[in-house]
């Protein structure tokens, strides 16, 4: 009885402690879940959060021309399609062609994605066309030790007028003389208005921009920031992106907030098309391609059936013409080059004793100097290359003329004229004198059987010498009489 009462008293107490233990475990579990929810998400849990949009970097190095403009414009469009939040134009240029510069600026102004022009690395510059591009960008950044400016339009063509050193003095006459001075002023005013409009659009120093055009002045990175030409100085790309994080930029009528700190960076490199275009649009390469093409076609036309010179010549000529149509070409220079080549070719077929050939070389030299209608650095044809091409053309021309002259002095070794003076053998006796100019016998000459005529009888097998030819009849005489 005692044991039964003890068991009855123990079971309720045991159930009571089990209930409290279960409630304690549930409370601890609830506190752990609540604490985990209140804590910041761990890296593993944040992996499902949307990643920041990428930043695209487009390098533009060297003189700005058709190739670099095409690469930059296509890069801006590709970055927009890939959902970039920012495009960084990493620039180091001495300047470039006006048309190529304007193509890049138009792409920047039309881009809905903010674009930052970054003059990088240290020692780089954004001169001339690079200054315009920096003014047009939403963000203008520079690395320490870089500079920008000297945006004056250069002289155009051979003998072009120099850019003005500054505004015209007050004492200058109101009506300026026509000619080169008027053209220079038109270019200067157009360039000044263009950079002033870009400065007003981006709220930058318009006065200094006009000075950069009219007086060709330059600024260092720190000076550019102090004068509100550039926005900031950053030693490298990560520092630039960190500085721009959280910045609000208006692009194409919409305001965007950048989240660039730690954003993935996609660096674009020129593809094969851009590299090929950069090579063939070099004026020196274009001129060489055109010369190879012309000479290849000349060889093909002079010796039909060789095929290879014709194919190579046609490809090189088409590539050269394609490159020239993308460059600022002076058509008078191109016409002089074509005239000079035509004269050099004519020298090989006309007995002019070098006069036409020398005239052709002179015309080619002047045409090559005038070919590219700009003095922009990196887009001229070096005088050394022109001299080398003229020298090679002269060597080729006079070498071929010497070979042709030597060939003319050689005796004839083939054809019908070589029969005169040859020795043959009579195969059909000649008994009578020929009276109708049709021949009175047959002889074997050079392995061929010819009808012959003679002033006297000839026996079969008698050796004879050919003294003349009249169509298909040979005049022969006995070797004894010869």
Explain what the structure shows.
By secondary structure, the protein is an alpha/beta fold. Helix content is 47%, strand content 16%. It is built from 14 helices and 16 strands. It has helices at residues 2-38, 66-81, 98-110, 129-136, 180-202, 206-214, 221-226, 237-244, 272-280, 283-302, 308-325, 331-347, 355-370, 383-409; strands at residues 55-61, 86-92, 115-119, 125-127, 139-142, 147-149, 218-220, 232-233, 248-251, 254-257, 265-267, 423-428, 441-445, 448-453, 463-470, 473-478. It has a six-stranded parallel β-sheet. Strands 12-13-14-16-15 form a five-stranded mixed beta barrel. Strands 4-6-7 form a three-stranded mixed β-sheet. Strand 1, helix 2 (66-81) and strand 2 form a beta-alpha-beta unit.
Question: Describe the biggest sheet?
Answer: 6 strands, parallel
Which regions have little confidence, pLDDT < 50, spanning 5+ residues? 1-15, 31-49, 155-180
Rg (C-alpha, Å): 43 Å
Which whole number gives the mean pLDDT?
Answer: 80
Query: How is the largest sheet built, in terms of strand order?
Result: 8-5-3-2-1-11
Number of strands: 16
Tally of alpha and pi helices: 14
The helix content is 40-55%
Intertermini distance? 171 Å
Percentage of residues in DSSP E strands: 15-25%
Shape field: elongated
What pattern of helices and strands is seen along the backbone? HEHEHEEHEEHHEHEHEEEHHHHHHEEEEE
Helix- and strand-based class? alpha/beta
């Amino acid at each position: 009885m005692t044991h039964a009462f003890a068991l009855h008293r123990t079971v309720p107490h045991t159930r009571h402690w089990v209930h409290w233990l279960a409630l304690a475990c549930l409370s601890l579990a609830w506190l752990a879940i609540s604490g985990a929810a209140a804590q910041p998400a761990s890296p593993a849990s944040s992996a499902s959060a949307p990643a920041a949009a990428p930043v695209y970097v487009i390098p533009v190095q060297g003189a700005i021309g058709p190739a670099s403009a095409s690469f930059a414009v296509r890069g801006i469009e590709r970055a927009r399609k890939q959902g970039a939040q920012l495009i960084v134009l990493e620039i180091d240029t001495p300047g470039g062609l006006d048309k190529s510069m304007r193509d890049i600026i138009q792409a920047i102004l039309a881009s809905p994605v903010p674009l930052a022009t970054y003059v990088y690395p240290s020692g780089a510059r954004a001169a001339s066309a690079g200054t315009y591009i920096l003014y047009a960008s939403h963000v203008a950044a520079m690395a320490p030790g870089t500079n920008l400016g000297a945006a004056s339009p250069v002289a155009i063509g051979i003998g072009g007028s120099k850019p003005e050193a500054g505004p015209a003095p007050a004492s200058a006459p109101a009506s300026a003389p026509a000619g080169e001075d008027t053209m220079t002023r038109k270019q200067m005013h157009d360039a000044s208005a263009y950079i002033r409009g870009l400065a007003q659009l981006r709220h930058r120093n318009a006065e200094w921009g006009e000075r950069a055009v009219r007086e060709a002045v330059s600024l260092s990175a720190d000076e550019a920031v102090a004068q509100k030409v550039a926005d900031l100085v950053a030693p490298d790309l990560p520092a630039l992106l960190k500085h721009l994080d959280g910045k609000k930029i208006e692009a194409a009528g919409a305001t965007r907030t950048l989240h660039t700190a730690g954003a993935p960076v996609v660096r674009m490199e020129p593809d094969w098309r851009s590299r090929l275009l950069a090579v063939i649009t070099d004026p020196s390469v274009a001129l060489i391609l055109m010369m190879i093409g012309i000479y290849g076609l000349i060889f093909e036309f002079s010796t039909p059936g060789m095929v290879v010179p014709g194919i190579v010549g046609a490809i090189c000529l088409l590539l050269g013409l394609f490159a020239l149509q993308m460059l600022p070409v002076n058509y008078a220079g191109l016409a002089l080059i074509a005239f000079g080549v035509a004269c050099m070719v004519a020298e090989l077929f006309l007995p002019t004793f070098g006069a036409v050939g020398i005239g052709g070389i002179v015309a080619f030299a002047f045409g090559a100097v005038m070919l590219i209608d700009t003095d922009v650095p990196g887009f001229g044809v070096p005088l050394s290359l022109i001299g080398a091409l003229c020298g090679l053309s002269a060597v080729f021309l006079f070498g071929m003329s010497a070979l042709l002259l030597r060939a003319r002095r050689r005796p004839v070794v083939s054809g019908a004229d070589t029969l005169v003076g040859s020795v043959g053998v009579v195969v059909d006796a000649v008994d009578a004198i020929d009276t109708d100019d049709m021949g009175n016998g047959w002889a074997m000459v050079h392995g061929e059987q010819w009808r012959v005529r003679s002033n006297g009888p000839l026996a079969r097998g008698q050796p004879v010498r050919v003294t003349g030819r009249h169509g298909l009849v040979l005049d022969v005489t006995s070797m004894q009489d010869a």
